[in-house]
Amino acid sequence: MSSATPPPAPDAPGDVPQVRAGTLVRHAKLWVFPTLLCTLVTLVLALLYMGGVLNPGDSLHRLPVALVDEDRGRPLPGQQENLGKQITDTIAATEAEDDTVDWRRLDRAEAQEALASGRVYGALVVPEDFTASVAALTTAQAKERPTLSVLTNPGLGSLGSSMAAQINQGAAHHASLEIGKQLSAAAASAPPTTRVLLTDPVDVTTRVGHPIGSHSGLGLSAFYYTLLLVLGGFIGGNLVNSAVDTSLGYADSELGPWHTRRPTVPINRTQTLVLKMVMTAGIALLTTTLLMVASIAILGMDASHLPMLWLFSYCATVAVGLGVQAINAAFGGIGQLVSMFVFIALALPSSGATIPLEATPAFYRFLGIFEPMHQLSAGVRAILYFDARADAGLARGWIMIAVGVVLALAFGFGMTRYYDRRGLHRLTPQPE
């Protein structure tokens, strides 16, 4: 009686027929999803980033600028108000016709307070002796040209401060020409040299209204520091997500040519998210400290209120990291792309840190209401440039961090508990 023929042994891995790339590349279905996704992402990113920076002047909407009238001189002959009142009234009246600038009429102390708290991008100041110095131009007592002062606020960013300075200088020059018309008409018989002076009689001086440190990147160090906080939370959250999935056997590990797959650990989605969030918060202790050491101790960035800066930086990084974990838990494989849009693609052009939100289209001003980078950069800027004042944006930054943490916990655990209750397990545990 003959014995049964044993089944053929399975082919060794090296004996499995290999498919060539040339064969697969001709399959149209293989191209569809990555092509559509890449083109869509590229198009959206181009529209988002370039749309917010191309026309800051044309998009200008109610840029806050202080208007200060300190003029105490008596009105010129035949006029009911002194020149300071005339100038500020004329400038403020343009707001009804043109809403590009939000002129805020303040006294000198209020204007300085607004500059020190980052509520205005600059100020135009009419000095106390302005009318008197203008009147002296037509007399032998003229000693110097009357002056209007333009104050800048570099703590709000070099571009925003520069735009406010240009607006103020333009308004001051226009006022000088209007005054020149009045003086020229009243001094028609004056010598030619005097008439030339009277045509444009006012000198405009520009100086810093609220100074910042010389190692502050012209007011941009707050933005780049905030960007590092967001990137730290974003990258750290994704690295923790990948490392935990690999260690628990839910993802392959590939390092160069070496490929491993660990045994799957039986753990539900909710407990996995707890583990990832705890690790994210723990690792952020180290990354936040290293960020401050590198930026301040090694590179010499100007910074004060260091304990407050460290605490705010840590909480900001954790809030972003928890948001990344929540999004990854909810969306799975495309979670990194979704979190990239939430924390990077939509956040950067609406941050208001490089280009003021008042100089961006309405869509970006809308995003700035809730996108995290705008709130976080305001908090960092308040700590670095504005003496950690709550009304300079620090309070808004803390509120945004708290809201972000609550939303991340509620959304993340809400989705994972829903998946667990529905029995939507990630993988069936396999024995070693």
UniProtKB/TrEMBL annotation:
Top-rank lineage group of the source organism: Bacteria
Q: Which residues form the DUF3533 domain?
A: 37-402
Kindly report the protein's main subcellular placement as a broad class: membrane
Q: Which UniProt keywords apply?
A: Cell membrane, Membrane, Transmembrane, Transmembrane helix
Mention any Pfam family matching this sequence: DUF3533
Question: Where in or outside the cell?
Answer: Cell membrane
The UniProt transmembrane annotation reads 31-54, 222-240, 273-299, 311-331, 337-355, 398-419
Membrane-related topology note:
Multi-pass membrane protein
**InterPro entries (alphabetical):** DUF3533, T7SS_ABC-Transporter
Q: Which PANTHER family match?
A: DOXORUBICIN RESISTANCE ABC TRANSPORTER PERMEASE PROTEIN DRRB (PTHR43077:SF8), TRANSPORT PERMEASE YVFS-RELATED (PTHR43077)
Task: Please state which protein family the record places this protein in.
Answer: Belongs to the ABC-2 integral membrane protein family.
Q: What is this protein called?
A: DUF3533 domain-containing protein
- Native organism is Streptomyces solicathayae
